[in-house]
Structure formats: C-alpha cells, structure tokens
Amino acid sequence: MSQIYNVLLVDDERDIVQVLGLFLEKEGITVLEAYDGEMAYGILKHHKVDLLVVDIMMPRMNGYDLIKKVRKETNIPIMIISAKVQLDERILGLDLGADDYIVKPFEPLEVVARVKAQLRRLQKSESIGEENLKYGEIELDQEKCVLYIEGNTIDLTKTELSIMEAFIKRPGKVFTKEELYECAWGEGAYAVDDNTIRVTISRLREKIGEKRIKTIRGLGYRLEKNE
Asked: Which residues bind DNA (predicted)?
C-alpha cells in the first residue's frame, strides 16, 4: 500500500490497541490510539484519520455514541470490534453507519486484512473521476459517496457505496453473497458473514426502496429498475 494512511484504534483494553497497532504498523499504516470515546473524538477533531476502528463498551463515551457523532461530520470507514455477539447489536452498529463488525475474540491477521480492504476501497474512491454512474432513475456519485434518486440525496457508507457500484456497473447480474462480500471487503477477506451481508442489504433497501434490490432465492441479489 503505497499511500500512508492513519488508522485510529479505540478500545479501553490497552493490550488490544497495542497488539493491533503492532500488526498494522508492520503493514506501513500509521496508528493513532484512544482508550475511550471522548479521547477518540478529540483526536478526530485535530488529526487526519482515514479509518476508525472502535470498540462498543467504553467509559465516558461508548462506541455507538461516538459513531453517531462521527457520522454527522464525515463518511470515513468505520469498523466495530466488540464482544457483543448478538445479531441485534450487529444490526444496530451497521445501522448507525459502521462498515464492518468483528466479534471478539478475533484473529489479529483477520482485522489487518479487513482494515487493508477498507483502505484499498478508500484509495479507489479517492482516485475516481467526476463521471457519475447511472442506472434507471438511480445516479451514484462515488466521490461524494451519495445516491440521487428522484430528486432525493441519500448518504452511503463506504461499504454501501461499493455494493451499489457493483450493482450499477453490472445491471441485471445476480450477485451471490460471496461476490458482494468481495465487492465490499475486498479479495482475500475472511469467511463470508451472512449476517453482515443481510444487514447491509436490508439497510440499503431502507434507503433506496425495498423493491429496488430483489432477492433471487438460492442465488443472491439483483438491482431492479423501479417500475
């Protein structure tokens, strides 16, 4: 990865921050550290941060509240790392605008792989030209990370942007969960997480309309034109 990126690790368990920091620094990534939400928010205000990796259960300001504040100001990629394993917790995190959710305990190399995938997509989005992608009444502005539908502007996360880009570039194609996972998290990502894909598709449907993304039973998903 030729460009130097800054990743902010936020967790009240300092051992986790230090271990992940060592692995990421070996990949040439600059690591910033915070141990609660308020400390992290202060760093975000005064430093350039390209990716936020955040725990949920922290003192002073928890991860959910931090994500809410960050999403009001920026669309940088956000990854959650949490001991909360329940599906409703994952849904909440992704609904608030997180791009990925990893459950503790985790394998550090998996986290590194997912961080690198997010940064590759960020690098790709930064190099995109001005021409928007269009499909029917849907227009995708990759640079601004927004969709335009029937005069409405819809903000997307980086993960949602990648999935919509895949749908629009190959209209009519049925994407399997594995293919969507690769589009969103990159080649070499670890095992496909059905819950994460399902929640992300559900969130996209809420934003663009239930009927615009069709489930093809036993196969995957396809983008539809609004009839």
From this structure: 130-225
Domain residues for the domain of 78 are 6-126
Q: Is the dihedral of CA 207, 114, 186, 145 positive or negative?
A: positive
Domain count, the chain: 2
Regarding whether 158 and 116 lie in a shared domain, the answer is no
Characterize the bridge pairing of strands 30-34 and 51-54: unpaired
Pair of tokens at residue 188: 């070499």
Query: Within 10 A of 149 (CB to CB), how many other CB atoms are there?
Result: 17
Give the whole-angstrom CA distance, residue 93 versus residue 96: 5
Residue 159, SS3 per DSSP: helix
Kindly report whether the global pTM for this prediction surpasses the value 0.70. Answer: yes
Task: Assess if residue 1 is contained within a domain.
Answer: no
91 and 115 in a single domain? The answer is: yes
Residues 6+ apart with CB under 8 A from 130: 143
Contacting residues for 16 by C-beta, under 8 A, at least 6 apart:
9, 55, 81
Are residues 120 and 178 located together in one domain of the fold? no
Give residue-wise pLDDT tens across range 26-75. Answer: 999 999 999 999 999 999 999 999 999 999 999 989 999 999 999 888 88
- pLDDT one-digit tens code per residue, 152-210: 899 888 888 889 999 998 888 999 988 888 887 765 555 556 777 888 898 899 898 88
> CA dihedral defined by 133, 136, 137, 142, rounded to 10 degrees?
-10
The CATH number given to whatever domain includes residue 12 is 3.40.50.2300
